[in-house]
Each structure stands twice: as C-alpha cells, then as structure tokens.
Design goal:
It holds the Pfam family Nol11_C. By secondary structure, this protein is of the alpha+beta class. It has 17 helices and 26 strands. Strand 25 and strand 26 form a beta hairpin. Helix 9 packs parallel to helix 13, helix 11 crosses helix 12 and helix 14 packs antiparallel against helix 15.
C-alpha cells in the first residue's frame, strides 16, 4: 500500500514535523529561530523532494529531509505577503499571495523581489483556497470576503484566465471543497444554516482572459443538515463520491446536544449512513487523501479508512441484501495501525452479531477455547474477522488476567496472525506475553504491531536482557530470523587477512592513524597497547536473545519518548546491549549481512541509532563504570575511524564534482581517450 506522510505544525511558533501515518511515529522535525512565526502551512514539493514553508508572511524557506535547521537551508524574501503554497503531484507548486496574485514557486524563487500585482479590492480577505488538477491543466480556486459579501475566484493557467463569481448567501459559508469529476469541477460548500450547496464549473473558460464583471455562480441545494438551536459555528463538509458526503461538526439527528460527530450522508436520498462520536473540541477541519479521512479533534488526529458502496435506496435505508459471493458492503475497513475506525450501521450490526457468537467461546478450558475458536474463525467473512479479532483478543486477555492458570497461547497467536490487530486495539496483550515469558508471541507482536508505545518497547527489551540464554533457547522462534543469526555468528572474520576496509572501518585501526589526537612523545617508544577493536568477534549473546533484540531494534519509536525509558536499564544490561550492537556493526562492516537472505534484519542505521540512544541515556554512568572502559574505548576508536573516512572523502569531493559537471564530448566514436583536468 502507498505510504502516507503528514506534515504537522501545532502552533504558529512550533516547528513543523513529518509523520508517517501508518506508524504514528515522527520521521523528522525542523527548528526555526526564536521570534520567527510560521505563517503558511508547510508543503512537500514532489518534483524536487523538498519541503517549503513561509515564515513572517514573506520569507519562503526550502529544505530537505537531511537538513537539521530550516534557518540554514535556502530562503528568499518576496515582495508581498503569501497566503498559501499549494503542492500538486508531479507539478510545480503554486503560490497564492494575500493580494490575490498567483505565481509558480520556481518563477518566484528565481526573482523573489519581482513586483506582484494587486488583484483583490480594498478590505477583501482570502478565506479559503485549493487547487484542482484535471487531465489538461491545474485550476486554482479561492474564496474571499468583503463587508459580509462572499466571492469565488477561478484562476486557470492554460490559458491564463481569472473569473470572479459572487456567492448568493443568506448565512456565513463555513467550508469549501472542490473535486474534479466527469470533466467538470464540482464545488461543494456548507453554510452556517446547515445548507450544503453544489456548483459545477467548467474546466475550459469562455470569454476574456480577465473578466472585469462579477458573474453569478449557479448552484443547487445538495443537502439540508440538522443544526439544532442556532447556527453552526465550526463545521466542514467533504464529498466522498457523487452520492456521499462526510460532515464534521454538525449535530447527529438522533444524539443529544453537546456531542460532536463525524457523519456520512447519502445526498441522493438525504439519509444518514454512518456516525461516529468524536471526543474533544471540534475544529471544523476535515481532509480526505488516498481513501482515508483525516479529522483533528481535541489533542487527537483520527485517520479513518472508508469505502462507499454504490448508492441505492436499499443501501440508503440499510436494507441491502446479500447475494452469494458478494461482500456485505464496502464498509469502512480496518487498518491495524490507525487508532480510530468509522463503522456504518451495517458494521455496527455486524459487530453485535460477532459479539453474541463469541461470548460462549470465552469459557471452558484452553483446549475447548482453541477448538471452538478454530470453528468460529473459519466461519467468519473478512469484514466480520476485522471486527472480531481485536474484541476476541481483549476478552481472552481479560480472562487471563483474572485467572492466572488460563493462557490460550495458540489462540492468541492465531488472532495476531490475522493481521487485523494492533497494540491500541488490545493494549494488554504484549505485556501479558512478557509476564508469561511467551517470547514467540512477543516476537510476533513486535513484527506486526507498528504502534507499540516506547514504554512497552523498553519493557520488552529489559525482559529480553534479563532472561537467561538457557531459558530462551527453549523458545520456538521464527525460523527465518533464527537462520539470520546463526549464519551471522558462524561467518568467519577475514579482516586480518584483508587490508581493505568496509564502510570506512577496519579492526586493525592503529592509534597513530587518529586524525584528532596528536601522538604522545613520551609513550611513542612504548609497546603499543592491545587495540580494543581487535577483539574476539564472537557474539556476546545467544542466538535466541539476538533474534529478539533484532526485533526490538526494528520497532518504530520516537527518540524523545524512548530516551527516558532507556534510563531504566541497568548498567550490566546496557553494556551487554552495546556489546551486541558493536558485534552487529563489526559484522555489517564486513558486508556479512548483505550475503544473508532474510525477510527481517536490522539496518545498519538502526544499529547506530540505538548505540547513540544508549550512550545518551547512560553516558555518565558508563564513564564511571570500570567494566565499560574497554567498550567505550573501542566505540571511541570506531568513531575516529569514521571521522577519518569522511575526512578523506571530503578531500576528493571537489574532484567528484568536477567529474559530474564535466561536459562529455559530442564526437565520441566506438573508441576514444578523453583527458579530464582536475584542479
């Protein structure tokens, strides 16, 4: 499935952060100077693989993933205040100024101080904007407000035309949404009185390039929503297809006051298809991307997968019957790593049916539960299994906690292997596995759960480091991961016979090769001490312990959240883990891991990230611990070898750039000799 990434900026003075939605983990964050204010949401330029943001209204900043600070990246001050930058897949981003002028990002950055024309009238303020991509061109839409009058501007680029429409309003427009469908642009807008209107705009303009007259915008009533007492203040409507609309911030017709809902409405039959209560404050914001709804509320962001069935009267009133071989409906589907689900009425009925069927499976012995569960799961359709897996696991875990003698390990494994579970669905499962020393289930959860909290990750690590190797050797772990460790530990070290280096590292590094420590004339004639890096290459842990540590190393985490919990590890545990990480890196430096075929193995960057985290969490204690002296010395020498590598690479950087920029001769035959002068 295509990965989904989200750029979040929580406050104008906060730093933008990039999150991978499926793992709920931050991928990067970038800082701005104190006193600077982000005045335009950050966007991603897919053409250049760069992020773009505006600070203090006029400063456009461009940076890449590897940049640490936005301040040190490219920036340009433009001549007018920027309202929004809109990113377009596989196209140049579009910049909309507060005065209504429009520029492409590339043309703007090539001449930042170019004059910008004023399109809007005095006291006319932009309230909303978006871009719509058609087969032939990109269309920019933005709405404005001036003295309680509302207007819509349509900016087309090929040819370059601008049309201004007047919105006939008897109340305040709260949200706009535009989609491209059937060769036209469909504009959907929600008013504070609960009316949802739709206007159809042609992609090809008629008339002059710039229309001086204000044109009326034809519209039709699409939906009349219940508003209760008074008018709506913070709400949003979003079209999902030609017959369904998602609405947030509008009262549920069957719920009491004071509750906020996300609802799906059928516009053909004016019926409510699904509803979900949302906790916390509603901000009137709603987005749709790649078949998922994004809804911020309170301190949460709910990401809700959805599918809409074909509109019909039977489906609108919930009476759609099933035929053989047909799914019950294209109801919202469960994606394990998202924390919020929106279920339609049919799915709620489905959940109740699953609950009634599964209650009787929660009693009896382990053998009886396993037998009944096998028969029960075999009779479920995919949609029912999605609902049942987490609920059944939660009920089994609850019984295990109440009755210590009851532990259906095979049944729990079976439910996790359905791939319809995550940690948030059954948060006590992994801790129960640790309590029972069920490391096979623990390994499976570490592999399949992408939302494990950092505290639980550290609890797993601490348990793995505490258990004796003899006990772990009795556990039946995954064969592929065991094979990786067995092959890695049995590989012979040939570094002493080969003077070459892998990844800039050689175990034969000498003290005099250091690029940052001058030689000591007093100790120059002494016999050199044993090189701490020239150590025994045997693995400091058993195979099974190594397998489980590898799973922890590959678990998603946030540095800031993981670091405090790492401090709970004891000094012997930290030293053992650092020794194992050093062993992994020594093997990786010889490219041993690349010769081993395995489905899952930690990357070298993951190994180094964990080394850095452990040193950050325990550096003072390790410096004072005599048993850690040799380990820290060897890690220090490794760092120096890396510094020397990058220093040598820096010396040839100019030559490599010259080769890259050198122009190839056009008159090249089948054989030629070309002389390139490097300075």
């Amino acid at each position: 499935e295509q990965n989904c990434y989200l750029i979040i900026q929580f406050h104008p003075k906060d730093t933008p952060c990039c999150f991978q939605v499926s793992d709920q983990k931050p991928l990067g964050s970038w800082t701005v100077k104190q006193g600077q204010c982000i005045t335009c949401p950050a966007v991603y330029n897919s053409q250049t693989k760069e992020y773009v943001v505006v600070t203090d209204e006029k400063v456009v900043r461009v940076w890449k993933d590897e940049d640490i600070s936005i301040e040190k990246a490219f920036k340009a001050t433009v001549s007018a205040e920027v309202y929004r930058i809109h990113s377009i897949p596989d196209r140049e981003p579009v910049v909309l100024f507060r005065c209504g002028a429009v520029r492409s990002l590339d043309s703007l950055l090539s001449a930042p101080q170019q004059p910008v024309e004023k399109v809007l009238s005095e006291e006319e303020v932009i309230r909303w904007s978006t871009v719509v991509q058609t087969e032939q061109q990109v269309v920019l839409l933005f709405s404005t407000e001036q003295k309680d009058e509302h207007y819509l501007y349509v900016q087309r680029f090929s040819p370059n035309t601008l049309v201004k429409h007047r919105l006939e309003t008897h109340s305040t427009p709260l949200s706009f949404a535009a989609t491209y469908r059937d060769g036209n642009i469909h504009l959907l807008y929600l008013f504070s009185n609960g009316c949802v209107y739709e206007s159809v705009l042609q992609t090809r303009p008629t008339g002059l390039a710039v229309s001086e007259s204000v044109q009326a915008l034809p519209r039709s009533v699409l939906l009349q929503l219940p508003v209760g007492e008074g008018e709506l203040t913070s709400a949003s409507a979003l079209p999902l297809d030609e017959a369904h609309v998602a609405v947030v911030g509008v009262p549920h017709p069957s719920a009491g006051t004071g509750k906020d809902y996300l609802c799906l409405w059928n516009t053909h039959f004016q019926t409510l298809q699904a509803g979900r209560e949302l906790a916390g404050m509603i901000y009137g914001q709603l987005w749709c991307y790649s078949g998922k709804l994004f809804v911020p509320h309170g301190k949460s962001l709910s990401v809700i997968p959805f599918e809409c069935q074909k509109s019909s009267l039977a489906s609108a009133v919930g009476k759609l019957k099933q035929t053989s071989g047909t799914k019950e409906s294209k109801a919202p589907t469960l994606v394990a790593s998202w924390d919020t689900l929106l279920h339609g009425e049919s799915t709620q009925t489905q959940k109740s049916r699953v609950t009634r069927k599964s209650v009787r499976h929660m009693v009896g012995s382990v053998t009886e539960v396993q037998k009944d569960m096998d028969a029960f799961l075999c009779g479920l359709e995919q949609g029912e299994l999605q609902v049942a897996a987490g609920r059944l696991a939660s009920e089994l875990v609850a019984r295990c906690q109440a009755d210590p003698t009851f532990y259906p390990q095979a049944t729990l494994m079976q439910l996790v292997e359905t791939n319809y579970m995550c940690h948030s669905v059954c948060p006590n499962l992994l801790m129960l596995a640790l309590e029972k020393n069920d490391f096979r289930l623990c390994q499976l959860c570490l592999q399949l759960f992408h939302d494990i909290p950092e505290a639980v990750t550290c609890a797993c690590l601490k348990t793995i480091l505490s258990v004796q190797d003899a006990e772990l050797e009795q556990v039946n772990l995954e064969a592929d991961s065991l094979l990786f460790m067995k092959t890695l530990t049995q590989t012979t070290d040939h570094s002493g016979k080969d003077s070459g280096q892998r990844n800039g590292f050689s175990p034969q590094v000498l003290e005099e090769e250091s690029c940052d420590v001058p030689p000591d004339p007093v100790t120059k004639d002494k016999k050199p001490a044993k090189d701490p890096l020239a150590l025994d290459m045997s693995c400091p842990v058993g195979l099974h312990r190594g397998v489980l540590i590898n799973e922890v190393l590959q678990t998603p985490y946030s540095d800031n959240l993981l670091l405090p919990h790492l401090k709970d590890l004891t000094v012997p545990q930290v030293i053992l883990l650092l020794q194992y990480l050093r062993f992994l890196y020594l093997k990786y430096s010889q490219d041993v891991h690349s010769q081993i075929r395995a489905l899952r193995k930690p990357a070298v960057t993951q190994v180094m990230d964990w080394v850095c985290l452990l040193l950050d969490a325990h550096f003072t204690v390790l410096v004072l611990a005599p048993e850690a002296k040799d380990l820290l010395s060897s890690l220090h020498m490794f760092v120096r070898s890396q510094v020397k590598l990058y220093s040598e690479l820096g010396k040839i950087e100019g030559s490599l750039e010259a080769l890259k920029k050198s122009k190839k001769s056009k008159e090249i035959g089948q054989y030629s000799i070309e002389v390139i002068e490097l300075f």
